[in-house]
Structure formats: C-alpha cells, structure tokens
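Person: Please work through this fold.
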Amino acid sequence: MLELTVQIFGFKDCQDTRKALRFFAERRIAVHFVDLRERPAARGELRRFAERLGAAAVIDRGGQRFRALGLHVAGDSPERLLERALVEPRLLRTPLVRAGSRVAVGPAPAEWQAWVDAAQRAGTP
C-alpha cells in the first residue's frame, strides 16, 4: 500500500462519490470516508477547500437542493453559500477529496492519479 491517505467527503447515494471511493480502492489507497449525511463537514475543512479552489468551486449550483432552497434566484455570495452548506451539506459539490495539502472537488480522476503517481515516485528508492 502506498503512503498516501485520502479523505473523501460525500454521500453514499452520490454516484461521483462512489466513483472516487472505487478509484482509490482499486489502487489500494487508504481512504477515510465521511458521509456528510451522518456528519457534516467542519467549518475548517470546508474553508481548506475554499481557500485552495475558491468558494464557488465547492458549491453545487446545479444541484437539486440548491434549486429547492431557491438559491438559484437569491444571488448569495459563494462565501455565504459555503456558510449555509455547514447545515445544508447537499449544497456541496461532491466528492470533496483531500490527500494531505492537495484537494479536489467533484470527479477528478486525472488529478487523483497524479497524486497516486507522485506518492509512488516518492516511495521509490
């Protein structure tokens, strides 16, 4: 097993989250999965994603929950939406994937593979 540990935030019923879990399982990468339905992401964790990718990248503006709450017409800033996502995790674009200081939002297999490749190079004598 590689010296790469990944944390995935998402929902068990989210197809993209399941793809992320499968991607890392197939490569025998240790994964810590956080089901946002059972335990919402911490403010600091969401801030980490927002700082690196921007708050707008973390919010799922095309999601059902976003529309159901009427946010598509509300015009809230991405930062305010991120605060709201603390209590409404379905507003987040999932999966949120973190490996050390590296983060990715949504399905990003090419980026995940780059992390795996970097970990393999680092582990090779």
